[in-house]
Specification:
Blueprint: E1 2-7, H1 15-28, E2 32-36, H2 40-44, E3 48-50, H3 80-90, E4 95-100, H4 102-115, E5 119-123, H5 139-160, E6 163-168, H6 175-184, E7 188-190, H7 198-210, E8 216-221, E9 226-227, E10 233-234, E11 237-239, E12 249-250, H8 253-265, E13 269-273, H9 285-304, E14 309-314, E15 317-322, H10 323-326, H11 335-342
Parallel strand pairs: 1-2, 1-4, 4-5, 5-14, 6-8, 6-13, 7-8
Antiparallel strand pairs: 2-3, 9-10, 11-12, 14-15
Helix pairs in contact: 1-9, 5-6, 6-11, 7-8
The chain binds 6-O-phosphono-beta-D-fructofuranose (F6P).
The site of 6-O-phosphono-beta-D-fructofuranose (F6P) has 12 residues, from strand 12.
Length: 346
Amino acid sequence: MRAGILTGGGDCPGLNAVIRAVARRLHANGWDVVGVREGWRGLVENKLEELGPREVSGILPRGGTILGTSRTNPYKLDDGVDRVLTTFRDAGLDALVAIGGEDTLGVAARLHEEHDFPVVGVPKTIDNDLSGTDYTFGFDTAVSVCTEAIDRLHTTAESHNRVMVVEVMGRHTGWIAVMSGIAGGADVILIPEHPISVEDACAEITRRHSRGKDFSIVVVSEGYELTYASGERRQVTQEAATDAFGHVRFGGVGDALAREIEERTGYETRVTVLGHVQRGGSPTPRDRVLATRYGLKAADLVLAGSWGRMAALQGDSIVDVSLKEATAELKTVPPAWYDVAKAFFG
Ligand code: F6P
């Protein structure tokens, strides 16, 4: 029996740990494992390579993905889906493990639904916005990177009496901003799902400074729309053009927000955009363990022929959920979590 593994969408720390765990468990059960290069593109363009024990050795702590990744969406290409099915059949594959976020797993769910495709999923994304699982792997590492950055910005902010705006990733949801902001003691956190206005953010900073604090840390998600008391909203993007999954390229809201804060409060303000640093490097121990557990579960789903399922974390247990349900809607930051953050504003 032969199983393919692919990693799609933005990379994140822990991908290699999943690949290793899937391959180790399948090898132990007599399966051959094939690496599909660059996400769905590998099945569209027939880019496959054998993944033997040697190939998956020594990769547990390594960031990125040994298979490469892409945001190729076969449903957006002429004959894309037919080519995926043909490559899969011609390579003699019996199963596919798709490791990805809402986009990659959305394709997997659709292929399973429409073509009875033998696929299982593993939830990956630093954004932590997949439903059906409490946490995706990669998120903990991103939060650690952001928290360390906020800690470092604190000391320089304090020395110079400055406001520091930190822009973090999170396309549709503010999980990274909320968690790293709580962990780093941010004074204001702005996220897409609970958009406080620029005026209110400035009022929090002014209130803090009137209490005798002469520096502030503001964390903003890249997907936050500049929101004004008038009701006006402005999305800041680097490029309005969308990718194959309909996403614009974010980046720049931190800059725009910093200018607003400096103008409205009179406090000197600087901005730091953490960008892809959040996705690079070694996974944290927590992400390595989570990725490993997900990988073993995905392999077990393959061995059991449980197609259309996704490994998930619920509480402290690894379970499986339907791919269709996991990708039906995004998991946003609930008000209760934002309230924890807000308790420390101003
Ligand atoms: O989905 C993960 C993510 O890191 C988002 O937080 C971010 O908006 C996007 O990917 C960036 O994508 P790219 O690597 O294509 O710039």
